[in-house]
Amino acid sequence: MSGRPVKRSLTLRGHRTSVSLEDEFWAEFRRLAESKGRPINQLAAEIDADRGLELGLASAIRLYVLRALKREAAVQDDAP
After folding, report:
1. How many CB atoms lie within 10 A of CB 34?
2. Rounded Cα–Cα distance for residues 17 and 7 (Å)
3. Per-residue pLDDT tens digits of the chain, which is 80 residues long
4. Whole-structure pTM over 0.85, yes or no?
5. Which among 26, 37, 24 has a CA at the least distance from the CA of 61?
């Protein structure tokens, strides 16, 4: 497990930005984007548009990933 976040570049609506995410969060974020058939920049832009001003983009992505994993776990728990 990587302890320190790694800075990664994204393009949101034509503007470059960077977020610092741990490798595990980045890997899950990429997987979720692929599973939705969206480029990672598009998914990041959607998360960015939905977050409030009080929440940073990296935190919003982490929460998105956490919620998605919880939904997936709940579906698996409900499966026969």
Report:
1. 12
2. 10
3. 557 899 999 999 999 999 999 999 999 999 999 999 999 999 999 999 999 889 999 999 999 999 999 998 888 777 66
4. yes
5. 26
What CA–CA distance (Å, rounded) separates 4 from 18? 15
How far is residue 41's CA from residue 15's CA, in Å, rounded to a whole number? 10
Tokens linked to 17: 């930005």
Tell me the DSSP string of the chain: ---S-EEEEEEETTEEEEEEE-HHHHHHHHHHHHHTT--HHHHHHHHHHHS-TTS-HHHHHHHHHHHHHHHHHHHHHH--
C-alpha torsion 35→40→41→44, nearest 10: 80
Residue 6 and residue 18 in contact, taking contact as beta carbons nearer than 8 Å: no
